[in-house]
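subagent[fold] <- orchestrator: predict structure for attached chain, return tokens only, no commentary.
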Amino acid sequence: MVSFSKIVTYERDLKVLSSKFLEILTSAFLLKKAAIYLFDEKTGDFILLNGIGDNERKLPVRIFFSKVFIEEFKKRDFFWFYSFEESEWLKGIDKTKVKQISGYHILPLLSQGKIIGFLTMDRKIDGTFLTTEDWSLLLAIAPSISLAIENASLYSDLQTRIEEIKSLKDFSENILENVKIGIMVINKDKRIKHWNRFLEELFGVKKEEAVGQKIYDILGNVNTDIILNEERFTKEPFVRIRVKTREKVVKNIEVNVFNLDAEGKEKIILMSDVTEKLSLERELITREKLASLGLLSAGIVHEINTPLTGIFSYSQLLQSSAKDKETKELAERINAQADRMKELVRSLLNFSRDSQGRKVVFNLREAVDQVMNLIEYQIRKKKINMKINGDGIFLYGEKVKIQQAVINLILNAIDASDIGGEVSIELKKEQDNIVIEVIDRGKGINREDLPFIFDPFFTTKGLGKGTGLGLSITYNIIKEHGGEIFVHSKLNVGTKFRIVFPPKNVETREERDAI
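subagent[fold] -> orchestrator:
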């Protein structure tokens, strides 16, 4: 999936894109062969883009289906022919054509209801067919590959247009305005000559405002210097910049620059918004690392259980044999904390097995207050001023795991705070959601580190001061409960972690009392 994400993000060459995708596809699903056909709107035919595998006979370069079959493309998510002969609705020329392309599995490629083409796949190497899980994954990536192929087609067309521009000094406004790539043209004075509709939507700046301005005025000095540094493009085919729109939203933009004349005085700048793709790629990598962490935690749990059993036994022995009240109370505390450790170990084992524990309705404020008792020493040691706001909110979930997530965030906030600092916990309901916020006024997190803070073993603390597991475990717990976790941080100002649970986790006091 990571390889697939990189291809659809970075690859612009249509032939290379399709070839790499088919290699990944046949390898991942152990297919005998597969091919991609693109739809020609002018003729109504499908044209072979690329094919791979052990083809017993050459695939047809151009293939035609009936209108009935093409209409089915828009209705069905996929086609699965266990037997061509037994497929009653598949008749006449359509059956012949499907046989020619060994189309036991056909995945329509659509973009906004428009047919882009289709992916045809033979059976697996062992002769079996795709499973339900295989289809689920294919349907998940179908929109991305459809969009990537469509964009690659548009990009290829655009490259051709650029060559024409060099000799004719004229290009089609219609194509430039509607292509799904940002297009900017600047003159020798670095003033903007052209600003297309995609850039209007991306930056929130109308064409009338942008044309005539210097590129520095909109992109800023740093980004402009990066874009116009020709040495960068001798090493990489593109550069990536971060821009802030008028709505204060930060976007990750991929930029290509081409000269429009021999002297390089006029340039055309192509921009693609890759913010969402990068976010999905990072989340996918994080989930893969969490899966590895699960295997590691399973081994750790078994190592912890042995000494924990001893602590239980000795604490109970001490409790029964103690003569004075103080010793007995200390033994009870040890036993209570060992019992809590047992619950945490059970949660860690559930985490490693990706299983669900017992969920109950519990008072969120009471659960947080219990957490405060456990970290009382850390709070006193740094003289932290703790503030907790919100009560009467009930949550449905695994109480111990939620407490585990909250305690990880509070301990991080305490570590980030100076002696005598302040940490706030906000418990509230927003519309139909339950929200938990942990806020500190500490040193903050570097912007470069923010994308990686939920990765296992990633830590900015010094050697021996942190394992880098707290936030990754917190992330997994929140996701397991169907929630989302967000972070906003600014250096030397502080950090806010915000957890949002959906309505299915929300319980009113009346519903709680009725249980």
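orchestrator: received. Logging for downstream: The first strand starts at residue 33 and ends at 39. The chain is about 45% helix and 20% strand.
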